[in-house]
Amino acid sequence: xxxxxxxxxxxxxxxxxxxxxxxxxxxxxxxxxxxxxxxxxxxxxxxxxxxxxxxxxxxxxxxxxxxxxxxxxxxxxxxxxxxxxxxxxxxxxxxxxxxxxxxxxxxxxxxxxxxxxxxxxxxxxxxxxxxxxxxxxxxxxxxxxxxxxxxxxxxxxxxxxxxxxxxxxxxxxxxxxxxxxxxxxxxxxxxxxxxxxxxxxxxxxxxx
Amino acid sequence: xxxxxxxxxxxxxxxxxxxxxxxxxxxxxxxxxxxxxxxxxxxxxxxxxxxxxxxxxxxxxxxxxxxxxxxxxxxxxxxxxxxxxxxxxxxxxxxxxxxxxxxxxxxxxxxxxxxxxxxxxxxxxxxxxxxxxxxxxxxxxxxxxxxxxxxxxxxxxxxxxxxxxxxxxxxxxxxxxxxxxxxxxxxxxxxxxxxxxxxxxxxxxxxxxxxxxxxxxxxxxxxxxxxxxxxxxxxxxxxxxxxxxxxxxxxxxxxxxxxxxxxxxxxxxxxxxxxxxxxxxxxxxxxxxxxxxxxxxxxxxxxxxxxxxxxxxxxxxxxxxxxxxxxxxxxxxxxxxxxxxxxxxxxxxxxxxxxxxxxxxxxxxxxxxxxxxxxxxxxxxxxxxxxxxxxxxxxxxxxxxxxxxxxxxxxxxxxxxxxxxxxxxxxxxxxxxxxxxxxxxxxxxxxxxxxxxxxxxxxxxxxxxxxxxxxxxxxxxxxxxxxxxxxxxxxxxxxxxxxxxxxxxxxxxxxxxxxxxxxxxxxx
Lengths: 208, 524
Prior knowledge:
The complex is a heterodimer of chains A (about 210) and B (about 525).
Chain A: H1 20-24, H2 38-42, H3 62-74, H4 84-93, H5 98-109, H6 124-138, H7 158-170, H8 180-189, H9 195-205
Helix pairs in contact in A: 3-4, 3-5, 6-9, 7-8, 7-9
Chain B: H1 7-29, E1 51-55, H2 59-70, E2 74-78, E3 90-91, E4 96-97, E5 104-105, E6 116-117, H3 128-136, E7 141-145, E8 152-154, E9 164-165, H4 166-184, H5 188-192, H6 196-210, E10 226-228, E11 236-237, H7 243-246, H8 252-257, E12 268-272, H9 277-286, E13 291-292, E14 297-302, E15 307-313, E16 316-322, E17 324-327, H10 331-334, H11 343-351, E18 353-355, E19 358-364, E20 378-381, E21 387-389, E22 400-407, H12 418-429, H13 436-439, E23 440-447, E24 457-460, H14 470-480, E25 487-489, H15 501-521
């Protein structure tokens, strides 16, 4: 019994050679013919997976997703040797075509926005003060601002925000010369005095 | 209060008084040493009409499904991938390697001998349950040659980077170790712990172990082969490689212990004829109507009277209701699937780390290794590729598949492009075989950390080299207890000796025994 399944997405005809299982001579079905791999790492419907350190994608803005996938593909993000999570993501995106990126962004757009659970506890009051600098671009409710290229932060996995802020502060993210928005974040993240300030600001974002 | 004697200390004491045989017997009793292992007898209560959801189709899942189906349970298996088997994966003509961002389709010659076991590849003779199922399901086995003394050892720092034969390395190393130990036997401290007769026997053994001369010195050995002659003419010994030179190789430990069967490795192992996945398909073909492929699980809810598993197939979400659930989805992926597990259970799932492993292989235009007197075994290379394996089957055939890298550490292959991986294996391989690059056709690579629906190789529990912490032991026990008596975690993640099929099968047997006992104790 060989079931030949047609993928619900259709591009990448280059991969549409005969079903692999024909050669195996055994049960199974054809391998997927698209690049919709995201949920393996990022969890069911992109809810995030702490065990893989892969953040929530559900609810992420389409324009931001597109920019990040393109940055990963181009090596603008994820190439710094100390950006371990980015190092893991970059090769996943390295071969994506423009059509694949469009398809992935559309697909992710179908997922329901569910705010992530809070896992980090800091000083919310001090975090709120520090957040004023963030609010200028990311919005008072951390809802994001496309015109300024600043993504929503509210509802994101706090452990992911923490890693990214630490990476910006250390220059592991945002130091590539073509990463215009990232370099702004490198500067802005340094307004946070120390690691406790980073924890505090993320704790405040958890309340939004 | 006196300190309790540790098991290890106890064995040392016993050795001092009772000799080796006493240590061996007690070691088996204390669980240090493998006894001759027996396959489990599975006797499940039959025909109870219970329904079981099995998540994944790794060998633990297939074992579970097979045993339960034989007993009359109604099983449904959900597999996220297009193929069964998980990390028991054989690549041959037509196989897709579904690595994320590095999709590969194998275009080797369509020949049953030309395959690459990209995951599990060897069966030790003490893995009785694997062997039991091979026998029961009529999977034909053949010998796998794990060690060949004519294979090579290569390290850029040793012998000017030129490879030496395994036997040159190992017989010389045995010689030097024996020579040094026999000298040390004159040392009063070592000597005082042995009787005269013991010293005599040890010296006699060392002389033969190291092939020492009458003065108990190592001056080369014909075990390393002859420099010339040996058949029509008297053989002459090869020049001795100086100990100082041998000690420049950093991979000598691997060279010296390949033959130590115990936890798995040994000089003679087994493999299924045609590829390791013959075991998987032997199960899966018997269970075929019960397996749903490309059906990733999207939610696991344990209820009072059963388990509800949501999965997606053909873009539609379905719910499978079952009395029990056996789950071999890798723990790090299960963390990304909504569930209602208890907090301590989820914490334990999140704790297990995913191991890294990388393998690569190519189809060789000719069996060039046979021209170098190699018929199987492993060449050890002190580079990230670490190992080169030669196929022990189809001797003198036209082509063969060479395993060109096997790295189970932290090398950066996961992040490398396919082109860079191929260049890496060729550049290191040609230090051993000058015609390697020319012989290599269509290399295939697999970084398990990037494999779709797997994202890792063998699970890693212990975070410290010293062994399992108490906290880890406790989390392990948490995961071995079924959630609400309904949800069982299986697979090598649910064992203390991961990376072996035998462990995965035993995890299934352990869970099945628990299930059977619960079912039997239910009111009629």
